[in-house]
Amino acid sequence: MDGVPYLRKIDLKIYKGYPELLKDLEDMFKFKAGEYSEREGYNGSEFVPTYEDKDGDWMLVGDVPWNMFITSCKRLRIMKGSEL
């Protein structure tokens, strides 16, 4: 979460997909991600889950297929939607 330096490791392989991961992140950090669409990203949310891939690029959680995500995700970050 931006402004809150939580250094937690999350084993992405225990999740079956994005909905399960997002629910746990929402519960852990007390935010609501809103609905994701490929065209517009996350709508109706002040915070947006992003991740850093193995190339160092920051992308929206949900942009790539789940299996690709769990192999390429190095770091998760919950950003303010206004910073995107």
Automatic annotation (TrEMBL):
It comes from the Eukaryota. Keywords: Auxin signaling pathway, Nucleus, Repressor, Transcription, Transcription regulation. It is found in: Nucleus. Its main location: nucleus. GO terms for cellular component: nucleus. Residues 1-81 form the PB1 domain. One of its GO terms (biological process) is regulation of DNA-templated transcription. Homodimers and heterodimers. Aux/IAA proteins are short-lived transcriptional factors that function as repressors of early auxin response genes at low auxin concentrations. Belongs to the Aux/IAA family. This is Auxin-responsive protein. The lineage of its organism: Eukaryota, Viridiplantae, Streptophyta, Embryophyta, Tracheophyta.
